[in-house]
Amino acid sequence: MEIVDFFASPDREHWMSQLRKCDWSAGGFLCRLIDEGRFHALTGAWSRLLLLTDGDRLVSFCTFCERDEIDDTDLSPWVGFVYTFPEYRGRRCFGRLLDKAKSLAAEAGFEAVYISTDHIGLYEKYGFEYICTLKNRWADDCRVYKGSTR
């Protein structure tokens, strides 16, 4: 398996076709942001879309970005749009992407990364700690988790 930076990839059309296979509504939203050229405007200029691939198949993806769905916060960077295709679940595939995001954050001088979610018990497996609940831009409560880059 290999990690691909979507925006640096020469095969973006192929990876978009793979992203479109995601059955999660937020995956569709992510595709629209990319199609409309709004991804970086929403998430920050240096934001990345990380893809875990198995040959030409997309296994899992996430964003590593300055901003996520919670607007009024000084917390950064964020890991968001976390998804693993059903046939790869239970193999901790996302952990590889998370390690890459943590590495990128550490290289940029950050001591932590953040995740907003409504899941309980998922990100704790990866060493994240719940720190608070905040409202996202749609006024929904989101649990905020913090993970060390060390």
If you had to describe this structure to a student in words, what would you say it looks like?
The protein contains four helices and seven strands. It is globular. The strands form two sheets. A four-stranded antiparallel sheet has the order 1-2-3-4, with helices on both faces. The longest helix is centred in the middle third of the chain and has 15 residues. It has one domain: Aminopeptidase, CATH 3.40.630.30. The protein is of the alpha+beta class.
Give me the CATH fold name: Aminopeptidase
Biggest beta-sheet profile = 4 strands, antiparallel
- Could you report the average pLDDT, rounded to the nearest whole number? 93
Radius of gyration: 14 Å
**Any idea what the CATH architecture is?**
3-Layer(aba) Sandwich
Tell me the domain tally.
1
- Oligomeric form of this entry? single chain
Q: What is the structural class?
A: alpha+beta
User: How much of the polypeptide forms β-strand, as a percent range?
Assistant: 25-35%
